[in-house]
Amino acid sequence: MLFVPCCRIFEIPNFPFMASSSPTHLSLSLDPSSSSSSTSLLNLQTQRTIFGSKDFEKTHLRIPVSFRKKAVNLQMMASGKTPGLTQEATVDREDNADVFDDMKQRFLAFKKHKYMDNLEHFKKLADAQAPKFLVIACADSRVCPSAILGFQPGDAFTVRNIANLVPSYESGPTETKAALEFSVNTLNVENILIIGHSRCGGIQALMSMQGEGDSRSFIHNWVKVGKKAKESTKAVASNLHFDHQCQHCEKASINHSLERLLGYPWIEEKVRKGSLSLHGGYYDFINCTFEKWTVDYGESRGKKEGSGIAVKNRSVW
Predict the structure, then answer these.
(1) Record-annotated residues binding Zn(2+) (predicted)?
(2) What's the predicted TM-score (pTM) here?
(3) Residue 140 is labelled as binding a ligand
(4) Which of 4, 162, 202, 282 is most buried, judged by most C-beta within 10 A?
């Protein structure tokens, strides 16, 4: 078997296995105009001299798009050229096409196997949504609530931010507060679930931040919302390794955010009346476990303000 690199032009003259009475040349050319999102057309041309005239035989091969980047690199190596912006941009566009081709296939699979199979459900969703949950989760790409908890379209109104934090009612406007107002007062969700997770970069930034942090940093200005969780962690776990302090703070910040939710008058009123429940969740993606608990409003009312919340129905899945 002969492996031929996918360069623009690659010529092999007079190989022994191609022995004939006349010189033979094998040339390959990549035809970009015939490329699709997944394959490129490779023209294989065999040239023979027969009775003083040239005879051409052409064969078309399909080459997967994943080989294109290697082909470009081989071509530049063969020519002795240094990769430039043009070559890099071409490869980037091709890689980008690969990413969106995968995304396209996933969407078409969703359309065929979920949307079309549940058409009546999606028609109802097109008219209105009535989710049972508001989920506040971290923006971390490893922590997708729909993927790990199986939420389907229409199940959960979701807002994601760095470190799944809830700012105080008295602070300025944020997208998280807007989501709280809309989901609680308009959609009338019955549950608010705050999901934290292991190895949270936002919590690590909070725990390593000196004082109020860098005022020019958007990250520092946001994560300091959780400074009370950091203070409580330092008070009880300062002797632990930094990683263990962060793990403690990841869970503490969830409870501090749950306590902060009770500072929103319209949330506290619904919780008091029993039409809204507050829950915490912690996803450990190292061991793939999920810990869940619920705020005990009755017990929490008896606590001094700022001293934390009481929880119930704790379980680990």
Answers:
(1) 138, 140, 197, 200
(2) 0.68
(3) yes
(4) 202
